[in-house]
Amino acid sequence: MRVLKVRTTDGLSLFSTLIRTWAGVAWMSYGLTQGDMTQVLVNLQSVAGTALILVGFVAFAQVPMRRQILCTVVMLGLLALLYVVAGRGALAVAGGVLGFGGVLPQMWKSFREPGGEGISIASLLFSVSCSFCWVAFGVVHNDLFVVFNASFGAFLMIVILAFTCLGRKSAKASSRSFDVSVEVDQKIGSAFFPASLLSRASS
Predict the structure, then answer these.
(1) Is residue 200 part of a domain?
(2) Any domain includes 192
(3) CA atoms in the 13 A half-sphere facing the CB of 20
């Protein structure tokens, strides 16, 4: 929605969006092979959302997508080959691996940049909640692939959330301490020097 509203892809990762699209396709295919329409419909919405972001990269950022389209075709072929060779479980494993790759940019950003500028706390909380819902879904349906993937996804999101919150808290604390030190310096200066002398020195 932000891409369509502000007509920019600033702060979004093309690599992450593409990987998450592939992960959604893998999980949607896994649901199809099980005849589970819940997984199919939910992951279809996810794929549609990331596909809209990819369209935003083309429309607003003028990113050429030929290489990405070729990689997507190759990935779809690999997913089909995995299913033929190893069965539907391989689709779930592929979806989990791709999902992990999709959050790597966010994880790296939360580690590298204090506060993780551009990372949405609300989005992370929503992702954690969704992961817990998928854990419950996997437990009810006795699907260990879904349980493990959703549990691992929730763990990663909690780690990113913790680093982001801690970074922003420390950044606020350092900014506050700097403001306090400036205020103390000003009070000390006004106590020892006349205001006219201070204003003349500042001018």
Answers:
(1) no
(2) no
(3) 24
